[in-house]
Design goal:
The chain is mainly β and about 55 residues long. The protein contains no helices and 4 strands. The chain has a 4-stranded antiparallel beta sheet, with no helix packed on it. A hairpin with a 4-residue loop joins strand 1 and strand 2. It is globular, with a radius of gyration of 13 Å. The chain starts with a strand and ends in a 14-residue tail after the last strand. The relative contact order is 0.20.
């Protein structure tokens, strides 16, 4: 787990296998917010915008 106390961001990345497919999990904790990403490629290729509504 990576903790950047200056920015208040804490991140955690791990991999597992689901139904014989390697899957990457990425968690990002921010002030009053939690972002969870799950994908079969280790990048955010399909993530365009994330915003608080």
């Amino acid at each position: 787990m990576e903790n950047n106390s200056e920015s208040g961001f804490i991140s955690h990345t791990f991999e597992d296998t689901l139904l014989d497919v390697p899957v990457t999990f990425f968690l990002l904790k921010m002030k009053e917010c939690l972002f969870i990403w799950v994908g079969d490629q280790g990048n955010f290729d399909s993530l365009a915008v994330a915003m608080n509504t």
